Amino acid sequence: MLHIVKSPLALEEINKVYLESDAVILIQDAVYAANPQHNLYSALNSFNIFALQSDLEARGVINQVSSAVNIIDYDGFVTLTAKHRNSLTWD
């Protein structure tokens, strides 16, 4: 499953349903959690994690992203969506 995360607060809930074959993409304000200094960054440790480049750039945090986070563009987002049969958006 692809978990599309809009808010960092949803990361704690995803831990309850996340499977090893899943992926998480951070979009909108959730991209702030890709910074190792963010208080919810530790919730990402067990995830196959991606962040949308345009949202990182729009918020001025592109240079603060952990190296453990894969930065992708919209084409990468489409590829992730096609790879995962199901997706769930978290607000």
UniProtKB/TrEMBL annotation:
It comes from the Bacteria. InterPro entries: DsrEFH-like, Sulphur_relay_TusB/DsrH. This is Sulfurtransferase TusB. Gene3D superfamilies: DsrEFH-like (3.40.1260.10).
